[in-house]
Amino acid sequence: MNRIIATLSCSLLFVASAFAQDMSAEKILQKVEDMLDISHSRVETEMRVYREQELRTTYRMDLKYQDTVSQLAETLYPPRNKGDKTLHVGDNTWLYLAKINKTLRVSEGNSFSNSDFSNMDLMKTNLSEDYTPALLGVEDYQGEQAYKLELKAKTEDVPYARILYWIRKRDLYPVKRDYYTFSGDLLKSMVFHTKTGVRNGAPDTLVMTSMLEKDKYTEVRYVKIERGQAFPPETFNKDSFAKR
Predict the structure, then answer these.
(1) Is residue 1 part of a domain?
(2) Is 0.85 topped by the overall pTM?
(3) d(CA 168, CA 163)
(4) Which tens digits make up the pLDDT trace of 68-96?
(5) Residue 17 in domain
(6) How far is CA 234 from CA 70, 208, 219, 231, in A?
(7) Total domain count, the chain
(8) Helices (DSSP H) in 107-148: which residue ranges?
């Protein structure tokens, strides 16, 4: 019996070891992105902007995700920003300001509605398109084992030179990202939480904190997700998105 138990233990250890070896940085990142994918979805979000530990502004937005390439965000609240839209297609981003009926081309690195999230942070879902991952190891993160990835920019056309990314090992849920500038400074840090339950246990609340300015952070919550949506092509057309 002892010999059987020992044999089984060795077999399980071998399988676990083989699994760990198979999990390259690319595979880990791909699995995380597949799990977080909200293509063909309509998402209701709430964004709260805090300054000096006080809530300054609350935004409510309707986001349409066609795929990893095309996304549209429309502000529903507050009234002064109602109807403002941000369109992201490929590497291009446009901002429509409803009050003055004007469309501007903006950078992925620009702040989204004066928050601590950039346009890229909120609109672009797959980091693997712009970054090359490397596995730095496994670390303890709040009592849990987590993979630590380093993502390096493929070009200088993105807002961040590198991103350190912690992913919980037992379920491959993301837990934290640190964003670095091309000059090597830590710009901001984002932590993932599960609060609303709309993603079936996966993270649904993101808190982005500035590392350059004290007591400056923004929280984004996914309030509702409607999957399996079919959007008309003109929804993501830069010449017509503002009129819809």
Answers:
(1) no
(2) yes
(3) 16
(4) 899 999 999 999 999 999 999 988 999 99
(5) no
(6) 11, 32, 30, 8
(7) 1
(8) 119-123
